[in-house]
Structures
1.
Amino acid sequence: RKEVEQDPGPFNVPEGATVAFNCTYSNSASQSFFWYRQDCRKEPKLLMSVYSSGNEDGRFTAQLNRASQYISLLIRDSKLSDSATYLCVVNPVSPGANNLFFGTGTRLTVIP
Amino acid sequence: DAGVIQSPRHEVTEMGQEVTLRCKPISGHDYLFWYRQTMMRGLELLIYFNNNVPIDDSGMPEDRFSAKMPNASFSTLKIQPSEPRDSAVYFCASSLAGVTPYEQYFGPGTRLTVT
């Protein structure tokens, strides 16, 4: 079983729409969670961390459900520039480990 | 500030040839990661270093792959001999423990095609 699983999409939404992505992780002891964004033919970049209480950054809201082992990302008022692949990322449990497990990504296209 | 630098950006080679990918991490970062990305498997961690020491190489697919980090500012990933199934984008990333340990900064990647 993969460490992190995501629906690959694609999600095609009109400008201004609200869209949500979920991902699930397999290790219940995982402590740190993130969303990275990857534009076409570019490198991944950190979008936001995901905190237990949920957190918001402008139009983006991230939430964590430990009981169900899933993470979500909500994008409100979608912009054309939001078109990208969104990677769900989990830090494993090993003490001192700085490595990350990446999901295969969910592709979003925002349509004019 | 310069980000993570990788070279070459594109590499096309024939099966059986040796390929060397290079990475210069962000100055001061103490972790360096090598990833491989394909459509089918997504982003896979191959190996990572802490203070130039390999910590976990369990993701290295087989003995044809090797990685070194001779100093804090340089790392190489070598494939010898290369095979068509090695075709992928190879990313190098670096991070700094203790501050934002899980924010990894990726280089632009090397797109490898093995024919």
2.
Amino acid sequence: NAGVMQNPRHLVRRRGQEARLRCSPMKGHSHVYWYRQLPEEGLKFMVYLQKENIIDESGMPKERFSAEFPKEGPSILRIQQVVRGDSAAYFCASSPLGAEQETQYFGPGTRLLVL
Amino acid sequence: GNSVTQMEGPVTLSEEAFLTINCTYTATGYPSLFWYVQYPGEGLQLLLKATKADDKGSNKGFEATYRKETTSFHLEKGSVQVSDSAVYFCALSNNFNKFYFGSGTKLNVKP
């Protein structure tokens, strides 16, 4: 059973460009979470999605950031008009159930560098 | 609100030394508590967890006990190895899969 997959592993963008980060959850998992890790910091929750639904986006910046998890295909975290402060590692996690306190399984992350 | 506070690192130990990484939390209700480990360039891996007060989570020689009275979940290992060098994150979950992470503690183990 393959783990959570993320691509690309590293992404370099210039200011003003768009960044698209992809996450394929573990087989059988229908819940996806995105986290951001700034250098030397812990992970900060961004958004929780189920197939075709955003359940909780309380951690998402109000502008430029969006996320989706379509019926088919991976979950996408999209950052428009990137700025240097967006440079971070973005981690995706998945879980099989929406039940409270279910363990999350993390992908290897996408490291975004904005020049 | 919910939050997790970890001791700052880096922590540098010699091989076979005893390890303690402190973690305290603030939460409403009855959270589950977790320790995750992150090796360089990789994602987080679940190390251990405890879901209720007085539970002890253990894995690979690491242990942590859920202490409700002190709101703590300190990570311990009796004899560390060089391969344990990594960043360790304490976390809690209290609201339908939303996790709250500490800032991480970097552990360096020297031969």
